[in-house]
Amino acid sequence: MDLMEIFFISLGAVVVLYHVVKLVLFSRILFPKLWFPLSKSFFTSMGEWAVVTGASEGIGRAYAFALAERGMNVVIMSRTRERLDLVAKEIGEATDQTVKVITTDFINENVFSEIEDQLKDLDIGILVNNVGVLPGVVPSRYLECENLDQMITKVINCNVKTMAKMCKIILPGMEKRCTTISLGKGLIVNISSGIATVPFPYYSLYAASKIFVERVSQGLQAEYKDKGIIIQAVAPFGVSTRMVSYQKTNIVTLSAENFVKSSLQYIRAGDRTNGSICHSILGWILQHIPLKIFYAECVLHSLQSYIKNQLKKSQPPKSSRSTAALENQTYL
Q1: Is 306 a catalytic residue?
Q2: DSSP alpha helices (H): ranges in the chain?
Q3: CATH of residue 124
Q4: pTM
Q5: Hey, which end of the chain has fewer CB within 10 Å, N or C?
């Protein structure tokens, strides 16, 4: 056997090994319970309390319910007192867990000192940074966004600043716990977006804000992993919430409850996950579409038209349309 044959056999073996490894890694997405098992006490071992921002509806409400069902007391935060009180009552009656309500509007500048005061005496083991603003339900060009100056401020305050500030408030307690307990505990889940997978026209501002969420999450995980603290960015695609006028659920667009149930199975899957099998496949497809094709005007217009049609089919109340972009559910 000459050197050329040895070279090609070795090259073939490397290629086969590469694809076997890729297949094994992909199987982890298909079978999260097998690859990333969680004990019954996993969540309660983190601490007594979980804090969920944007918890009055949608994904945030679903996380609050799911964590209470797993034995956590929960702090739910949003800007609408009526909805929060209703959610608190529902969680308390369904789970017998304690629910603390904090009313705040994360779009405003100076809300975090008051939040910190209300949280300072709690043993917080889990933080879910869910609150987020979508500039518009229908994707559009940057300059076509209504009240663009105000929307820039809202997106930065709500999607960027709030996540960083809440981590600043909660992380010190988790780090302190690591020095007093042999196995340091803490979990932070930061809700990103599947559209942040690539630079995404028509969602430019929103996608950029979610890239910030992902990079900070991944950096913090590298810093705090050795202390036993899990920090993960969760990047869903379609989830049926009021932010998107409750589009009908299907294999791609999941209900908030089903998405959260799925995403909790991936808590130990790394510093970033799409949270479900179908959304992981969508993310893989999006990464492998040539950007020149994806950025073609006809493709973007087709996406815009598709979303408009879906919204028409869902027939949301008029009041929901006018307030959807200001509420605290994360869809993309």
Answers
A1: no
A2: 3-30, 32-35, 58-69, 81-95, 112-119, 148-155, 162-180, 204-224, 256-263, 277-288, 291-294, 297-314, 318-323
A3: 3.40.50.720
A4: 0.87
A5: N
